[in-house]
Design brief:
Strand content: 25-35%
Number of helices: 8
Helix content: 40-55%
Order of helices and strands: HEHEEHHHEEHEEHH
Distance between the termini: 25 Å
Structural class: alpha+beta
Largest sheet: 7 strands, antiparallel
């Protein structure tokens, strides 16, 4: 339990730094201030990921931006929007250009942009810690029920899953998850967080 608590403390600090960086970028594209606040980070066996996500999200009307990464360690990740949070973001980030798109392209553009900003913040921190020993793919947009957005993401090669909750407005949260083949290398690198960032 103590070891798990220490791991969570280290990982929480890492994700907080990345989310703070994403928050700054997100504010520049919104029509009113957005403040991302990391509420929690929890670790689970990967087999529990679908069940834990359903507790956080429900199972329907979800939108997600996903990404795969490799290098010193490998894994995959998604940032997931519930219907209620998605509608708020659409109102805040719409623009004259986006309003010219059809509804499907309009929503895809907004959530893809938010996902790109989120991953630029998080993976930027991880890449810096790893001295760019991590490669990550261009994020990909998905929508549907929980089963469909997780399709193709679950694999026995991953040893640990992480779920984080971000408050974006009162009672409106974003959920993200990561799966890693190993946590040891990330935890080792995270001990140097203060050498690169203000923590």
């Amino acid at each position: 339990m103590q070891e798990n608590s220490q791991q969570l403390a280290v990982l929480t600090q890492l994700f907080k730094v990345g989310i703070d960086r994403a928050d700054i970028m997100l504010e520049t594209i919104s029509r009113s201030p957005i403040k991302l606040k990391l509420l929690s980070v929890d670790l689970f066996p990967p087999q529990q990921l679908p069940m834990q996500l359903e507790k956080h999200l429900g199972a329907k009307d979800l939108k997600a931006v996903e990404m795969v990464f490799s290098g010193e360690f490998q894994g995959n990740t998604q940032l997931i929007f519930t219907k209620q949070t998605a509608s708020i973001l659409i109102d805040l980030i719409e623009s004259e250009y986006r309003r010219k798109l059809d509804k499907e392209d309009f929503e895809k553009a907004i959530f893809s942009e938010v996902g790109n900003i989120f991953y630029n913040g998080i993976m930027g921190v991880i890449s810096t810690l790893c001295e760019y020993g991590i490669t990550y793919m261009i994020p990909r947009y998905k929508e549907g029920d929980l089963r469909s957005i997780l399709l193709g993401n679950l694999s026995p090669k991953y040893s640990v899953a992480l779920i984080g909750t971000i408050e974006i407005f009162r009672d409106r949260n974003l959920i993200f998850w990561f799966q890693f083949d190993t946590l040891e290398k990330l935890l080792e690198k995270s001990n140097n967080l203060g050498d690169y960032f203000d923590v």
